[in-house]
Design a protein that fits this description.
Protein name: IclR family transcriptional regulator
Strand content: 15-25%
CATH class of the largest domain: Alpha Beta
Helix content: 40-55%
Shape: elongated
Keywords: DNA-binding, Transcription, Transcription regulation
Distance between the termini: 42 Å
Number of strands: 8
Radius of gyration: 20 Å
CATH topology of the largest domain: Beta-Lactamase
InterPro entries: GAF-like_dom_sf (IPR029016), HTH_MetabolicPath_Reg (IPR050707), Tscrpt_reg_IclR_C (IPR014757), Tscrpt_reg_IclR_N (IPR005471), WH-like_DNA-bd_sf (IPR036388), WH_DNA-bd_sf (IPR036390)
Structural class: alpha+beta
Order of helices and strands: HHHEEHHEEEHHHEEEHH
CATH superfamily of the largest domain: GAF domain
C-alpha cells in the first residue's frame, strides 16, 4: 500500500474517531499541515469527508453510501431481514443482529418498533462488549474451545453495572449455560435499564454466523417477561438458520 493511500485511510479513521481540525490531524499523523491538507482536499472532492464553517472535518456522504451498500451485501443481514422484521412485530420490541468483530460484537442491523417510547443507544455499526451482552455471549459459544478460552482470558472486563460478569470464571459459567439451553440473557449487565435475550444464527456447516437479540427497557417489561420472549426468538433464528443452509 502506498504511503499516500495509507495516510488517507488513517485520516479517515481519525476523522471518524473525532479528530477534526487540520491542526489536530497533522499533529496526530506527525506530518506537516500542507501534507494533510492535500489529502483532505482529495478526500473531500470524492465525498469521503467535508468540513464545516468552523473548519472541522466530518465523514462525508459517499462513505455513508458505501456503508449502506456493504450492509446490503452482507449475506446474513439480507437473509435475516424479513424474519427479523416479523420478530420485531411479534414481540413489539427492539431486535438486533450482531456479528463477531475481533474482541467485540458489532451490530449490523437494528429494528425498532415504530411506537417505541424508549430509544436505545445502540445503532448499526456500533460495537458491543462480549462479556456483558446477550449477543456477545452467543457469539462466544460459536468459537472453538481453545480460541474461546484465549479470548475470554484477555477481554477487558469493564464493570458496566452491578450485574456485569466480573471476570473469566463468571463469564465461562454464562457461556456454558448459554450453550446448554441454546440462548443467552443479559440481565441489566450492559445497561442498568435494559434486559435482553439472544440466540444464534447457524450456517450450513453448523457454525454460528451471527447472533440475534430482543432488547427491552425495564419500563416496558419486567425481566421475567423478557425471558418469556425466548421461544419467539428461537423460532426466528431457526427459520433464518434454515435459510442460511443449516439443517
Amino acid at each position: 500500500m502506498s504511503q499516500s493511500v495509507a495516510r488517507a485511510l488513517s485520516l479517515l479513521d481519525r476523522v471518524a474517531g473525532g479528530t477534526s481540525t487540520l491542526g489536530e490531524l497533522a499533529a496526530a499523523e506527525g506530518v506537516h499541515k500542507s501534507t494533510v491538507l492535500r489529502l483532505l482536499r482529495v478526500l473531500e472532492d470524492e465525498g469521503f469527508v467535508h468540513h464545516d464553517g468552523e473548519h472541522r472535518y466530518r465523514l462525508g456522504p459517499h462513505l455513508f453510501r458505501l456503508a449502506h451498500q456493504a450492509l446490503d451485501s452482507f449475506e446474513v443481514r439480507v437473509v435475516a431481514a424479513p424474519r427479523l422484521k416479523a420478530l420485531r412485530d411479534e414481540t413489539g420490541q427492539t431486535v438486533h443482529l450482531a456479528v463477531l468483530d475481533g474482541t467485540t460484537a458489532i451490530y449490523v442491523d437494528k429494528l425498532e418498533p415504530r411506537e417505541m417510547p424508549v430509544r436505545m443507544a445502540s445503532r448499526i455499526g456500533k460495537t458491543a462488549a462480549l462479556h456483558s451482552t446477550a449477543v456477545g455471549k452467543v457469539l462466544l459459544t460459536g468459537l472453538d474451545a481453545a480460541e474461546r478460552d484465549e479470548l475470554i482470558a484477555t477481554l477487558p472486563y469493564v464493570k458496566y453495572t452491578e450485574n456485569t460478569p466480573a471476570g473469566p470464571d463468571e463469564l465461562r459459567r454464562e457461556i456454558a449455560r448459554t450453550a446448554e439451553r441454546g440462548w443467552s440473557e443479559d440481565h441489566a449487565e450492559n445497561e442498568t435499564f435494559i434486559n435482553c435475550v439472544g440466540a444464534p444464527i447457524r450456517g450450513a456447516d453448523g457454525r454460528i454466523l451471527a447472533a440475534v437479540s430482543v432488547s427491552v427497557p425495564d419500563v416496558l417489561l419486567p425481566y421475567e417477561d423478557v425471558l418469556a420472549l425466548a421461544p419467539a426468538l428461537m423460532n426466528a433464528v431457526a427459520d433464518i438458520s434454515r435459510d442460511c443452509g443449516y439443517r
